[in-house]
């Protein structure tokens, strides 16, 4: 697919870079952007060699949420069309969340509305100290609907209410304190910090990354006793993989496992 609003690049055999590429409007999301992102996510998910994808924005912003031009067209739509146009956005966050790769957010600047939600679906989020965050939907008389499940899971119900009901901006340091992002670094150190996380990821087998991410998604919010059969089977499945045999052998032999690669 010839992308017009995003860039998908191969950083190495094991790492992809996915960049929102509309800097002139702060990488805002439109239906075209959503469709291109869904296509890119499917391609990333199908690539068995890839272990991680770095998500970022071009220019000074990470993502400013919904494209206001797109939003204006929604005002004249029927209810059925509004729902139909909303579903791809819901699919986008769901597919990002279930992607069997490590999603590393390179939060290079402001992340508002849907950009706040994009931050929440990253497995690891590293923010520049200049980044700012806000759930801005209520300022437009709207609600953070499609991103709501991921926001509430990431920062908790109480904080989701606080920031969704006040729409206040928070800086990167506060975002780190509430668990929205994992690390905050100076803008000039952002790429180095991303590389450090990638080094950790590339020391792990792709199969364990995918299975671990799925396991956490599947057990989240369920009582532990309800998960016992599921987790027992998940562990039995893992023991039966070549990766488990190699991992144990490498540990006992005091050597690096054969899946560890360099960028």
TrEMBL record:
Q: What InterPro entries does the record tag this protein with? A: ClpP/crotonase-like_dom_sf, Enoyl-CoA_hydra/iso, Enoyl-CoA_hydra_C, Enoyl-CoA_Hydratase/Isomerase
Key words, A-Z: Isomerase
Q: Which is one GO molecular function term here?
A: isomerase activity
Q: Does the keyword DNA damage apply?
A: no
Keyword hit for Mitochondrion: no
The organism's place on the tree of life at top rank: Bacteria
Please report which protein family the annotation says this sequence is part of. Belongs to the enoyl-CoA hydratase/isomerase family.
Name recorded for this polypeptide: Enoyl-CoA hydratase/isomerase family protein
Which organism does this record belong to? Piscinibacter koreensis
């Amino acid at each position: 697919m010839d992308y017009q609003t995003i860039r998908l690049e191969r950083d190495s055999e094991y790492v992809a870079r996915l960049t929102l590429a509309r800097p002139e409007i702060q990488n805002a999301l439109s239906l075209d952007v959503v469709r291109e992102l869904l296509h890119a996510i499917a391609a990333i998910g199908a690539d068995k060699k890839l272990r991680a994808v770095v998500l970022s924005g071009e220019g000074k912003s990470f993502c400013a949420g919904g494209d206001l031009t797109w939003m204006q067209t929604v005002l004249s739509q029927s209810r059925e069309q509004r729902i139909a146009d909303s579903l791809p956005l819901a699919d986008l966050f769901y597919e990002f969340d279930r992607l069997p790769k490590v999603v590393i957010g390179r939060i290079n600047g402001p992340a508002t509305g849907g950009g706040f939600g994009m931050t929440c679906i990253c497995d690891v989020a590293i923010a520049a100290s200049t980044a700012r965050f806000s759930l801005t939907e209520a300022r437009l008389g709207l609600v953070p609907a499609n991103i709501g499940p991921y926001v509430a899971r990431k920062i908790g119900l109480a904080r989701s209410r606080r920031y969704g009901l006040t729409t206040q901006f928070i800086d990167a340091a506060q975002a780190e304190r509430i668990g929205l992002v994992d690390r905050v670094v100076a803008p000039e150190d952002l790429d180095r910090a991303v590389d450090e996380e990638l080094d950790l990821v590339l020391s792990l087998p792709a199969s364990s990354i995918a299975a671990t991410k799925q396991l956490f998604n599947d057990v989240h919010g369920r009582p532990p006793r309800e998960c016992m059969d599921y987790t027992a089977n998940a562990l039995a499945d893992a023991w039966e993989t070549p990766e488990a045999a190699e991992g144990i052998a490498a540990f006992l032999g005091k050597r690096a496992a054969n899946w560890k690669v360099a960028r």
